[in-house]
C-alpha cells in the first residue's frame, strides 16, 4: 500500500521549465528514494496486552524457584573448568563455584538406569571387557594388554570411588574425572591426543555458534 | 363477433397479463385469465396483437409463448436498418442481465467495426446502454436503455456507479452488530429460563432491517435480503451466530469468541511480519528485535 | 519433527539444565536415537559430562532409552514434548494449590523436583523442610492424607518399574498399575528420625501430567461454554464431564452416552447453589446442545434422552478460535472474515469470497493471497472439462486444511516460544554481572538478618547497589517477568494445539 501513493499527484504535473524555476533539475531529484526500506517495518498491529494477574505472579515465582533449585542441583551439568590460556580475575571464583558441586552425584533410581550411567560404572565396564575378551579374536592381544593397564588404573579408581563421600578435596576429584575420561576414550578407540584435539574443536564450535554462549 | 369495445377490453386484459409476466405467457395463461373467450377468439385476438406488433411469439419447449414488446422496441423497429434490428433484438433478449459485446458479435455475425458503429448508433438514440459489470470491472454489458440492471451486474445496494461502497457496508455491519449486542446478554441467567433468554437475544433479519431503516443511515432502500448479507458478514466476523426458526426465518445472536486472545498474539512474534526471516544469527534475531524492544519497554 | 521444535527444546534445556545438557539434548533431537559413544563423538564433550547429562535427562523423563542391538549399550532418545512440559510445571502447582490446598502444592512441587521418589522419602523430606514453619502448619498426617487423595485422583502415579533380562545390562521400564498405598503415620514419623539413606521404600512415584491436562481441558471447555451461554450452562457441562470420566476413556473423542436422568440427579444435588440450573434443567440442556459450540450432542432417546460430550469437536472449535484470533492479529479482521468464510463454505471460488465477505474487490484479493502466503488457507485448482473450443479453464477453489494450518500455528508458537526464551537468556547474559551482584547482596543481607545484625550494617551492604544499578535491575526484572509470563501464555496456546493433534 505504502509505495503506491506516489503516483497520485500526477494530475497537476509541472513542465520541465517550471521545475527548473523551482530549482529542481533532472539530476538531483533522484537520491531520496535510494534509502533501503527499514529492516523492521512499522508494525501495523501491536501484540495484545499480556494477561497478567495474581495467578501469573504466583506461577512466575514458582517457576523461578524451580529453576533455581535445578541450577543448584547436580542436574545442572556445569562446564568443566578449562583454561584457554588467558588468565582472568574471575577464574578463581568460577573454579570455586564449580568445584563446590563437583562431588555431588544426581540422585536417581539407579536400577532403572542403564548400567553405563550408574556411578560405579567404571568397574562394571572393565569386568565386561574381560568377558568380551574371550570372544573377540582380532584385537585380542592388544585388548588384553590394554585391559591390564586399565585394570591397574581402575583399581585406583575404585579406591577413589569408595572414598568419594569422605573426600572433599577438589584436586582429587578432578583427577578422577580425568581418569575416567581417558578410560572411555580408549574404549572408543581414540587415543589421548585425539581426545585432546576434540576438546579444542569443541571449544571453537562454541564460539562460532551463538546458541551456546559462554557461561559467566 | 362482439363489439369493438369488448374487443378492446380483451386486448387490454391480454396485454396486462403479458405485462405482469415479462418472461412470456402461454396460451393456457390467456385461457385461464379470460375464460369467457373461446379458443377461436383467442387465436384471433393473439394474431391481431402480433400483427400490431404489440407482442412477440416465441417457441419454448414445444409450446408457444407470447411476450410483450416494449415500447422502445417498437421505436427501434421504426426507421432502423437490419443490422441495428438484429443487434437490438439480441440485446433485448438478454433482458436486465445484459449481453457482452463478444457474444453479440458471435451471434450477429457482424464485423467488429460495424458492430461498434451499430452499438454507438443505438446508444446515441438512447435505446440501449452500456453497463459496467461489478464482478469483472473491464467487462461491459449492453442492455435496453430503460432497464434496471440485475443485481448480479450492478451489485445491488452496495454499489454506487459500479464502485463498491465498503464504507457503507462497514457502517451497516457495525450498526447491525450493535443492535444484536444490545440484546445478546438476555440469555445469561434469564429469570424466565435460558430458552426465553435465547429467544430474546435473537433478532430476525426483518427486525434488523426495520432498525436500520429507522436509523435512516441509508438513502437506498435495503431489502431484508440485503440485511441478511450484512448479518452474514457479522457471522463471518465471528461476532454472531445464526440459527433458523421453525418457520424458516433466519435469526442472529451476538456472541463472544470461545477463547480470549491466545498467548500467541500476546507476544510480538505472533504479529511479526518478519517471523519467517527470524533466525538465531543474522540481522533479524530475537536478541536485536526492535519489536521485542518496544514490547519490553 | 520440526526444526523449530528442536530450537525451542534446546533453548529450554539451556535455561533449566545448562549448556552441557542442552548440547546433549540438541544432539539427541537431531539424530533421533543414539548410544553414548556416538553422542561423545558428535558433541565432542567429555564422556563423563555426557553421562551426567543423560542422567539428568532420564531422571526428569526428558529422554528414554532402549537396549541397542548389541544388548550391552543403550540407545537414548529425547522426548521433546516432555521438555516443553517443563514450562507447564508452574501451572500444575497452581492447579494443586487452588484445588487441593498447600499440602498438595508442596507434595507436587517436591515430586516434580525429585522427578521420581518413594512416598516415605517424599513425605519425610517435606515434613522435615517445614518442621519449623508455623504459618503453613504442615503435619505428617495431613501430608499423608493428601498424598493418598492425590494418588486416588490420579495426579500422582507409580513410576514404571525395571525389568532386567538375564545378561542384559539395560533394564526395561514397564508401566505398572497404581495401587493406592497404605501409609502409616507412625511409620512415617519414625522415618523422620532416621537418615534418608536408611529408609527402605522402593515403590516410586511420579507426577501424572496427563491427569493435570485433563483438568486443563475441562476448564477450557467449561469456560468457553460459560462465555457462550452462562455459568449455569458451564456448570452443566462440568457435571457431564464428570459423568464422562465414569463411563469413557478420559481422552475419548466422544464420551459414551450419558442418560439425562443421571445428569438431572447431579444438578439436583447442587440445587441449593444453582437453583436456576435446577429449575430450568431441560431448557439448559437444550440450549447447551444447540448453542454450546457443539461440545454436547443428543445421541439417543433411551432413558429419557442421552447426551454425549465431544472433546474432539471442542478441540476443533477451540483450535479454530485460536487460529481466527491469530489471523485477526496478523492480517486484520477482514482477513479473519475471509478465513471464517472459507471455513464455513468448505470450498469457495475467489469471486464468491468477494461476494460474501462484502469487501472491495482489490482488498479482498490481496487478503486472500496473504492468507495463502502465510499458509492459513490453501488453494485447489479444478480443471473444468474441456469445452468445445478446447479451452480448458481451471477454476481455483480456496479451502482450509485445518490440520495443516494447525501445524503452521504450532510452528509459529515454537518460534515465538524460542524467541522469548532466547531473548530472556540474552537479557540475563547482558546483565549477568549486575544480577550476580544483586544475588550476592541478597544472600549476604539474608545472612545478616538471620544473625540479627544491626540495621545500619545491613543498609551499608544494601547500598553497595547504587541507584543507577537498582534502576537497571528493576527494568531487567520487569523485562524478564514479561518474557516469563509470555512463556506461560504461549504454553496455553500450545496446549490447545496439542489437544487438537490428539485426534487424527
TrEMBL record, chain A:
DNA-dependent RNA polymerase catalyzes the transcription of DNA into RNA using the four ribonucleoside triphosphates as substrates. Specific peripheric component of RNA polymerase III which synthesizes small RNAs, such as 5S rRNA and tRNAs. It comes from Galleria mellonella. Pfam families: RNA_pol_3_Rpc31 (PF11705). Keywords: Nucleus. Component of the RNA polymerase III (Pol III) complex. One of its GO terms (cellular component) is RNA polymerase III complex. Coiled coil: none annotated. InterPro entries: RNA_pol_III_Rpc31. Residues 171-190, 199-216 have a biased composition (Acidic residues). It is found in: Nucleus. This is DNA-directed RNA polymerase III subunit. Belongs to the eukaryotic RPC7 RNA polymerase subunit family. It comes from the Eukaryota. Residues 148-216 are annotated as: Disordered. GO terms for biological process: transcription by RNA polymerase III. The lineage of its organism: Eukaryota, Metazoa, Ecdysozoa, Arthropoda, Hexapoda.
Automatic annotation (TrEMBL), chain B:
Belongs to the eukaryotic RPC34/RPC39 RNA polymerase subunit family. PANTHER family: RNA POLYMERASE III DNA DIRECTED , 39KD SUBUNIT-RELATED. InterPro entries: RNA_pol_Rpc34, RNA_pol_Rpc34-like, WH-like_DNA-bd_sf, WH_DNA-bd_sf. Signal peptide: none annotated. It comes from the Eukaryota. DNA-dependent RNA polymerase catalyzes the transcription of DNA into RNA using the four ribonucleoside triphosphates as substrates. Specific peripheric component of RNA polymerase III which synthesizes small RNAs, such as 5S rRNA and tRNAs. It is found in: Nucleus. GO terms for cellular component: DNA-directed RNA polymerase complex. The gene is LOC113519731. Its main location: nucleus. This is DNA-directed RNA polymerase III subunit RPC6. Keywords: DNA-directed RNA polymerase, Nucleus, Transcription.
Automatic annotation (TrEMBL), chain C:
The keyword Cell inner membrane does not apply. It is found in: Nucleus. It comes from the Eukaryota. Its main location: nucleus. GO terms for biological process: DNA-templated transcription. One of its GO terms (cellular component) is RNA polymerase III complex. DNA-dependent RNA polymerase catalyzes the transcription of DNA into RNA using the four ribonucleoside triphosphates as substrates. Specific core component of RNA polymerase III which synthesizes small RNAs, such as 5S rRNA and tRNAs. Component of the RNA polymerase III (Pol III) complex consisting of 17 subunits. Belongs to the eukaryotic RPC3/POLR3C RNA polymerase subunit family. This is DNA-directed RNA polymerase III subunit RPC3. It comes from Galleria mellonella.
